[in-house]
Structure formats: structure tokens, C-alpha cells
Amino acid sequence: MMLAASRIANPYHLDYVVKVVKHSEADVVLLCGDVGINEKFMRELSSLSLSILMVSGDDDDIYVIKLARKYNVLIDGGTTEVAGVRVGGVGAINTSLDISSLTSRVERIDVLLTHLPPHGCLDRQPPLYIPTGLRSLRMLLEVVKPSLVFVGHSARPGLDYCGGALVIGVAGFLVLVDSPKPRWVRFIPLDRAPSSGPASEPRSD
Asked: Which residues is 161 bridged to in the sheet?
């Protein structure tokens, strides 16, 4: 079970992420950039029996990046294997370098974690709604051929297909996925979480 998250700045929402992870029994947490992680959040996640992977976002400051490196979860431009699943990452700090690094390896990636969207996939930003995704990232998909792509900075939450891969736009939601070749995907809005005060238990649908 994978849980992906992006665009989380409120520390109380971080508490909610931990609650959802525990409630769902997720074994992999994917942070798709612009998640304002703090020491408390990382300690709580690290105390659970799960894997944590993260790519940088365009709004992540140096504190967030240093903390991700401290906990050895940042995979910008790299790959790692989790339970037999190869995961690669493209961050927003040096996107071109990350793409070049993954392309040069010429290895199959099962799941790609990226902050910015590939061209033509969940990348139409208001108000003009013209494609703003990266062509170089679209080309990377053709090389590494992932089954599943998580996009943190998508214009909206949702699903699309791009070069044979299922692309999931996280867009400030929590997203639960059952496997790298999903049978189901669940979006959990952060408006279920409190904006202040103690975090509440996730509500069931």
C-alpha cells in the first residue's frame, strides 16, 4: 500500500498524514515535493515499519532538503528498490540534472516520483489552461517506462495516461494506491484534517 502526498505546509496536516498512514497501514510513503516536513513528522514516520521516499518541490527551503537528507529519504535523480519495486525520483531543485541522471542509467523504473508534470499530462494550469509540463520529462517516461507516475505539482488531482503509464496528480491531496499496477486509487482531501488543534482520526467514506 502506497500513500502519496504533496503541497502540505500546515503542521497540523502533517499530523493528519501520520494518522492516515497508521489507519491505512500504508507501507510506503511518497512525498512529492512542497511537503513542509519537520523533525516531529519525520521521527513519527520513521518509527513505523515503512519506507519513506521524497523528491524536492519548488517551494521547499534548505531546511526541508537538509532534513530529508538527514533521514536519507531524498531520491532526486536517483533510484531505490522497495519490496522489489524500483522507484525513481525527479525533484524541482535541479530537474534537468535529475532527468539526465535517470536517462543515462537506462534502467526500468516501476514507479516514478516527480514534482513537476510531464508535458501533456495533468499539466494545464489556469487561467489559460495551456500545457505547462516538461517535454524532457515526457521523454524520460519513454526511456524508463514506469507503470505508475506520481506528480506533486499537478494542476488538479486526478488520473491520466502518459506513454503507457498511469499518471496520478496528487495536487495537495493524500492519495492511497494499492500497488504499482493499481486496481484502485483513493483521493483523501486535506479539508478532512483540522487547520489547528489536535489532529483527528481519518473519517471513513
From this structure: 166
